[in-house]
Specification:
It is built from 2 helices and 7 strands. The protein is of the alpha/beta class and about 140 residues long. The protein has a 7-stranded mixed beta sheet, with helices on both faces. The N terminus is likely disordered. The radius of gyration is 15 Å and the shape is globular.
């Protein structure tokens, strides 16, 4: 069993500065946040995921679309792209880290490009087609 010393973490950044950023280690606070997002009709659609294994857990890097009635115009470009990374405890079958952003920093862009280099997409694939998944 993994020895995770910190509780789960959920983090979201919708851009540079404080607009729309949310971070918590508290499950009740996270559930209240999800309730608010549901009230705004938030929908996430997975586009691609890369998985790397470690003992009793996996790390993931993902790209998805994010839609809601209160997102800042232009955030995530015309397709409303969000990207991030997380970790899943395989034994407990729970996500214990989820970080997501809608604007890339230079460091985020380098990590995203590295994932895309190693996770080849079928010819003519475009966002919204079948989910692309790969094991790293």
């Amino acid at each position: 069993m993994p020895n995770f010393k910190t509780p789960g973490l959920y983090g979201l950044s919708e851009g540079k500065g404080e607009y729309g950023s949310f971070y918590t280690h508290d499950r009740d606070e996270l559930l209240r946040y999800f309730e608010k997002r549901h009230e705004h009709g938030e929908k996430l659609r997975l586009l691609e995921v890369a998985v790397s294994e470690r003992k009793n857990a996996v790390d993931i890097a993902y790209t998805l679309t994010r839609r809601a009635d209160d997102l800042k115009p232009g955030l995530g470009g015309p397709d409303r792209i969000a990207f991030g990374k997380g970790a899943i405890d395989c034994e407990k079958q729970r996500i214990f880290v989820w970080n997501m952003a809608m604007e890339m920093t230079e460091q985020d862009e380098q990590a995203y490009l590295a994932i895309n280099e190693s996770c080849k997409k079928p010819d003519a694939w475009k966002p919204g087609d079948a989910v692309v998944a790969c094991l790293q």
